[in-house]
Structure formats: C-alpha cells, structure tokens
Amino acid sequence: MEKKATIRSTREWLASKSRADRRVGLVPTMGALHEGHRALIRACRQKSDVAVVSIFVNPAQFGPSEDYARYPSTLEKDLELCRAEGVDLVFAPEAQEMYPKGFTTKVRVEGLSEKLCGAFRPGHFDGVATVVLKLFEIVSPDLALFGEKDFQQFVILQRMVKDLNLQVALEAIETVREKDGLALSSRNAYLIPRERQLAAGIFLGLQAGRVCFERGTKDPDVLVAIVRKALLESGIETLDYVTLIEPETLETPNQAYPGCRMMVAARVGRARLIDNVRL
C-alpha cells in the first residue's frame, strides 16, 4: 500500500498504474475509520482494480462553532485498516495542500444544499461539494462510494456529477449499524455511556415510522409524528429535524411511497447524529 500526501505525487502514482482496462475506485473519508468505512473499502475492492482511500478532515465543511478542531484523528490506525483491506493508495493531504493560500473557489448545488442539514449547517454542503470535486479531479476515479447514512450528501453529489458531466459513477452502500441499530459514525466517539444508550433510540424511532408505513399509513405528517413521538419517548429530546423526503428532490411527498426516506438529525450530548431509513 502506498501513502501520498501531495496532489502531484498522487497523480504521478496513479498515472504509473493507469491502463485502459483498470478501473479506479475511490472512497472519500475524513478518517477515524470504522466498520462502515471497511464496508465501503471492501465494496471498492470488489468493484475496481485500483482502490484509493482519501483521508482528509475537510475544514471547508465545518462551521465556526463546529467540531473541526476536535474531530477524531486516528491516522495510524486508519492506515492499518486500509492496509489490512488491500487498499492500493491512501491520499492523506494536509489542509494547505488542498486549500493553498489564495484559494477562493466554492461549489454550490443550489436547491438541495440549503435543506435539512444545510439549514442547520450553513455552507456545509458547499464545503463537501468543493472537496469532493477536487478529489475527483486529483484521483480521476471511475467509481466513488459513499454511505447511505449521509443520504442528503449523496443526493447532492449525484446532482453535481450530473450537472457538471463528470465521468465518475457514484454508488451508495447500505448503512452499517451496531447490534442495537445505531448507525456507525466517527462522531459516536463523543458519546459517554449513558448517551450511547440514548442514541440507539434514533434507529428505533425510524423503525417505528417504517412499521407504520408497512401497515398502510401513507400520510407524511402522521409518519413524522410517530417517529418524533418514539424519539422523545426514548429520551432523545433535541431534534434538528424529523422529516419524510423524496429521494431525488429532498422534498416532502404528498403521500409516502416505497423508496421515500425518513430522515432524522438529533443531538445527543456533544454529538450531532444523523440517520435515515428507506420506506
């Protein structure tokens, strides 16, 4: 496995491996890798000939009062995981490599970035789209893999790829969960034991909504109320949003239908946790 920290060395290494019949896959991450990332890496290995993982805590997607300075950093463990999973190249740049002095460009996907998490984290998805576009330009992947937990992010990146005619296929991998249903997230490390128990209620609330849909409830307001009630009863009191959305527009449908997503963003202790389920 190779590790590169500069754009130039990364491009040179990939150029040396380039062949028309070799498919390059990319798993963009911010490090603090867990079993969810491992699932993405394994899918990447299965679907590509050259597996690339980027590890970069992107300052552009953090607001002034957010957790950029304390975001978990476990680079050596991350490299061990990547090596064990057969990753070919890890691109782990410093912030000044990605955003040199004088950098002023931002990518914004209008109409999708301002909704849901975007309403609570202004500019967040501009930072995500900007860094992912840069990674696509640096690595030139044929395939990029993301987790369904960050569903809004995936929809935004799909729109960016379509609008800009980028030659990369995006694929979402099913959310990996703990035994009690909690979606794996690097931010779970912020949870103390009591908060960790409470956090399991997020998935239970989402499941309550899905069960009611499967039993015939189609009214979005009713489904959202059921999920919200289940969350509050489980002890999760601080909710940024609970909503039902269409998977392409992120708008609430008139009636729920198979393929819609029930979305939740909740705050448990210091952690802001997001999750969703497909109806």
Secondary structure layout:
Blueprint (H helix, E strand, L loop, with lengths): L1 E3 L2 H11 L6 E6 L5 H13 L2 E6 L19 H10 L4 E3 L3 H4 L18 H4 L3 H16 L3 E5 L3 H13 L5 E5 L19 H7 L1 H14 L5 H14 L4 E8 L15 E8 L2 E8 L1
* Class by alpha and beta content: alpha/beta
- Percent of residues in helices comes to 25-40%
User: How many strands appear in the DSSP assignment?
Assistant: 9
Termini distance?
Answer: 40 Å
Order of helices and strands: EHEHEHEHHHEHEHHHEEE
Name of the CATH first level of the largest domain: Alpha Beta
**What percent strand?**
15-25%
Overall mean pLDDT score? 97
Number of domains: 2
Strand order of the largest sheet: 1-4-3-2-5-6
Number of helices, where a helix is a run of at least 4 consecutive DSSP H or I residues: 10
CATH topology name of the largest domain, in short, is Rossmann fold
Tell me the Rg in angstroms.
19 Å
Poorly predicted runs: none
CATH superfamily of the largest domain: HUPs
Largest sheet: 6 strands, parallel
Multimeric status of the protein = single chain
Descriptive notes:
The chain is α/β, with parallel strands linked by helices and 279 residues long. The chain folds into 2 domains: 2-173, HUPs (Rossmann fold, 3-Layer(aba) Sandwich), CATH 3.40.50; 186-278, Pantoate--beta-alanine Ligase, Chain: A,domain 2. Helices cover 38% and strands 19% of the residues. The protein has 10 helices and 9 strands. It has helices spanning 7-17, 35-47, 75-84, 95-98, 117-120, 124-139, 151-163, 193-199, 201-214, 220-233, and strands spanning 2-4, 24-29, 50-55, 89-91, 143-147, 169-173, 238-245, 261-268, 271-278. The strands form 2 sheets. Strands 1-4-3-2-5-6 form a 6-stranded parallel sheet, sandwiched between helices. A 3-stranded antiparallel sheet has the order 7-8-9, covered by helices on one side. A hairpin with a 2-residue loop joins β8 and β9 (271-278). The radius of gyration is 19 Å and the shape is globular. 40% of the residues are buried. The model has no long low-confidence stretch (mean pLDDT 97).
